[in-house]
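debug: dumping io for the single-chain case to check the tokenizer round-trip. Nothing else runs in this session.
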Amino acid sequence: MKPLVVTGSSSDPYHNLAIEEQLLRSCEGRRILYLWQNDHTVVIGRHQDAFSECDLEKMEKDGIRLARRLSGGGAVYHDMGNLNFTFIAPRRLLSTDENFEIIAEAVGRFGIETCRTGNNDLGVKLTGEKFSGSAFYQSGPDEDSPCFHHGTILCSCDMDKLALYLTPSSEKLAKHGVKSIRARVCNLGLDIGEVRESVIKAFEERFGEADRAGEDICDEASVREIQSRLSSHDWLFSI
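debug: decoded output
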């Protein structure tokens, strides 16, 4: 089966995360690359406490949405200067190392050499600053269970807002040897559209020519049902 590339058109985090989950449910052994963007959103990991990870009062005042994803990991700020990627496939076919290589190849086309800065991060080799963080989710215990590896590519994100809404503990910052979250990350300074096409090209070079589709490939009723759950108070504030 040919791989599939799905490009999102919405900037609504609940809709985009619902599309991601629906693609996971319906992948049927196929490799899928989903590329999407959220605007003015803080996304927390599946097991995080929203009250301790972000400034909810400031977010509400400034119209910043809170979303919770299926995967673990830390809180991140999304705006339209950030490109999100999701690799979806059965567990036996999905390699996070291979996915990191695809992102590195895509960014490398712009003359930027990358490096792994942690188990789930990519950085700029010249400075060691992180431009991509990622997380993993598996839907079941066996090798045929659909899973995904998703993450960020910071191209021109508003770094001041990133630091404004996220409130990591001093212990977490000390673990990474930095005084602030702003000191640890960087933008690539690249055009989002060009990066998107470069990621698709690197994906196809690795796995072959892909079918391309918009998010309307997903069942609309299923997406609405998932979106309702992901935007609910219980999902956002329960651990």
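debug: round-trip ok. DSSP finds nine helices and eleven strands in the chain.
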